[in-house]
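To: structure subgroup
Subject: Chain for Friday's discussion

All,

I'm putting the inputs and outputs inline so they're searchable in the archive.
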Amino acid sequence: MIDFWLAAGLLLLVALSFLLIPVLRGRRAQLEEDRTALNVALYQERVAELQTQQQEGVLDNAQMDSGRAEAARELLADTEGADTPPLSRLGKTLPLLAAVLVPLLGLGLYLHFGASDKVELTREFAQAPQSMEEMTRRLERAVAAQPDSAEGLYFLGRTYMAQDRPADAAKIFERTVNLAGRQPELLGQWAQAQYFADGKQWSDKVQALTDEALKADPKEVTSLGLLGIAAFESARYQDAIDYWTRLLTQLPPEDNSRAALQGGIDRATEKLEASGGKVAKAPVAAKTALLKVSVDLAPELKAKVQPGDSVFIFARAVSGPPAPLAAKRLTVADLPATVELGDADAMMPQLKLSNFPEVQLVARISRAGQPTAGEWVGRSQPMASSTTAAQKLTIDSPDQ
């Protein structure tokens, strides 16, 4: 920030110079004006003496005119080179007052509307923090400077959890949810922080948060892990095994937390068997959605397309995100063709056919190779994502 204030000070000096230089010039002009007035007074005194001598008969008219001319030449010689000072109605008080008020007003406006705190934060974040405490202070200052940043709030909440400050984290996650919306991941983080802030006591609030998170995303990992912990703490070992098993299936093979999670499942199994219980078999996983669709081109369009034109075949949710849930790409030369769209063709892991109860099939011809816009399209009626019967889809309408 030193270089910033040096630059600001330099600009301030430039601004003050425009105010003070005219005042200094005015002072010199005043001195010139005073000297001229003195010379005029001396000239008038000399003329008065000459007139007195003329009246007394000492000087005749010719000598009077000669003396007056000589006094005039002396006056012109003394005032030669002196510029006539410009008239100023501002005086000295107003410019000097402005010179004091301008920097004070500028500083006040900058402190109110400026972003010096954000500039300083940017410089700090350019350097790696030396400790977790320093990182926390930076995030707290960032949140104070940008209270509407959901991303900053989220990272601050995670940092509070890492520092075993769940009560503070719960408040931060609540603010994050209010800003970013009730996303499953944020609800799960909020529920987890609230559970530990309450001293590992399950509450209706935590239950509502986890229920809402898993309803929106049945695979939300934080909620599954938290429900497993709560079940284990309350000696509901079978529930703990079920929740942690569901969570285990969501983790990639290289995830380091898989070993700890499996250890928790083993401990829950031992305690269940030690209490005389028996581990229930895991429920059979639901079959993944798989739609079989035959795509063909309307006869009247065959002369209007080229063999190399792209054909995009995809399924999208009737009520849900506009992004395709599963897609395949062919060419017009491949038609008619039969394809299968299933969870394995998902564009994103969280957007699978099996996660949405009702879908629509779409086939689009795009000469430019763009899946979102083309020349011709065919659409099916809404159908259940669990449909097993083969579907027929005809491309027969202009794409609008």
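Points worth raising on Friday:
The two ends are 55 Å apart (CA to CA).
The chain has a mean pLDDT of 79.

D.
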